[in-house]
Specification:
Blueprint: E1 2-6, H1 10-17, E2 35-47, E3 52-59, E4 62-63, E5 70-71
Antiparallel strand pairs: 1-2, 1-5, 2-3, 3-4
Length: 73
């Protein structure tokens, strides 16, 4: 299903890009707008021994903030 959403952590990434020594662990989102459209997917991620359990939300393979997802006709 098609959707529109805001890239996860976009503001944090843009601020990081302005640092003299940016954190290399963060993506750059170089050339991307804050909002993307495309195929929406979600999957459950669970790593019990590490205490990890969440739903991963992506649009065209990029992580998006689940609170910003808008489904398109």
């Amino acid at each position: 299903m098609r959707a529109r959403g805001r890239l996860d952590g976009y503001d944090e990434v843009m601020a990081n890009n302005q640092e003299e020594y940016p954190d290399p662990a963060l993506p750059t989102y170089e050339g991307l707008d804050a909002w993307i459209k495309g195929e929406y997917e979600t999957r459950h991620v669970s790593v019990p021994y590490a205490g990890i359990d969440y739903q991963k939300h992506t649009i065209d393979g990029r992580d998006v903030d689940p609170d910003t997802i808008e489904f398109l006709p």
